[in-house]
Amino acid sequence: MEAMRDIAERGYLSEAEIQEWIERLHAALDAEIPSYDQTREELEKSLEALFNRDLKTIYRRVPGVPKYKIDRVAPQLRAELDRRIFAGADLIKLNREAAIAKTLQRFSGWATSVPPAGKVPPIRDAAKDISKDVSKLSFERRRVAIDQGHKLSAAVASVVATQHGAIAAIWRDRGASDHNYNARPDHLTRSGTVFAIRDSWAMEQGLIKKGGHQYTDEVEMVAELPFCSCFYQYIAQIRDLPDDMLTERGREWLAK
User: Fold this and answer.
1) Which helix (H) or strand (E) is 46 found in, with range?
2) Which stretches within 57-131 are classed as H helix?
3) How far is CA 230 from its chain centroid?
4) DSSP alpha helix (H) spans, 112-136
5) What span, in angstroms and rounded, lies between the C-alpha atoms of 169 and 155?
6) How do the pLDDT tens digits run along the chain, 256 residues long?
7) Is 16 helix (H, G, I), strand (E, B) or coil?
8) How many whole angstroms separate alpha carbon 83 and alpha carbon 46?
9) CA 217 vs CA 62, 164, 198, 211: distances in Å
10) 143 torsion bin: left (phi>0), alpha (psi -120 to 50), beta (else)
11) Burial class (CB in 10 A: 0-12, 13-18, 19+), 137
12) Residues near 149 by Cβ (< 8 Å), separated by ≥ 6?
């Protein structure tokens, strides 16, 4: 506001003066907005807490998985956590840089349009417009953390399910139970739908077939799209599959 009041009172006088204000504003914004290290530390704490919670509640997404199988893939799970921390922190950094650049660009555009001396233009609305990207950064950081959290949870469940020998997965959309959630229409349609896992042990042994279902790799992964909170509930037992996915051999195997 100090820069805008000064320019509003005296008008646009020179490029050098505007450049000096831009440099001062850049330094002020850089000091005011949380740094990369700060946001990474904040994101790391958030995702670490989610990661630990997911491991405690993994049985909701991968029913029946024994603890020793979870322990067996611990290094892979930790690697997924590290990937999400890096991806989220990098995105927040890019958002930060873009917000600062847009703020300075808008300030420059406003400052160079102020006529020398004379009537002082109103600056409140202009200041609000100039700073709008910076004002949204805190919200954007939370959105990134939430989105990376959904992606982390999906990845953790996928790794554990693979280790457990999952043969199919049920798509679950939050919008099916939360009508306030802005679900993607195609994802909401998939909610409750069973997808076969290609080349599973049960399929290789001829116990199950794709039937009228799709493979999980024929659609995007749950939580893959931005801000998608869908998840898979995995199936590892043949008895839990729809009847049209069983082969004759599979039915005979169940009857034993």
Assistant:
1) helix 36-56
2) 67-72, 74-111, 124-130
3) 11
4) 124-130, 132-135
5) 14
6) 677 777 777 777 788 888 888 999 999 999 999 999 999 999 999 999 999 999 999 999 999 999 999 999 999 999 999 999 999 999 999 999 999 999 999 989 888 888 776 566 677 888 889 999 999 999 999 999 999 999 999 999 999 999 999 999 999 998 878 777 888 999 999 999 999 999 999 999 999 999 999 999 999 999 999 999 999 999 999 999 999 999 999 999 998 7
7) helix
8) 14
9) 18, 18, 8, 15
10) alpha
11) buried
12) 46, 47, 50, 84
**Chain position carrying tokens 């939370």:** 142
Which one-letter amino acid corresponds to residue 50?
Answer: L
Separation of alpha carbons 150 and 224, rounded Å: 9
How many angstroms separate the CA atoms of 151 and 50, rounded?
11
Q: Max Cα separation, the chain?
A: 95
Closest CA to 61 of 242, 233, 220: 233
Per the listing, tokens 């005011």 go with: 32
What's at 150, amino acid-wise? H
Alpha-carbon distance of 46 to 145, in angstroms, equals: 7
| Per-residue tokens: 138 | 């805190």
Read off the tokens for 131.
Answer: 């700073």
Residues 47 and 142 sit within 8 Å (Cβ to Cβ)? no
Dihedral sign for Cα atoms in the order 97, 98, 103, 108: positive
Is the separation of the CB atoms in 239 and 255 below 8 Å? no
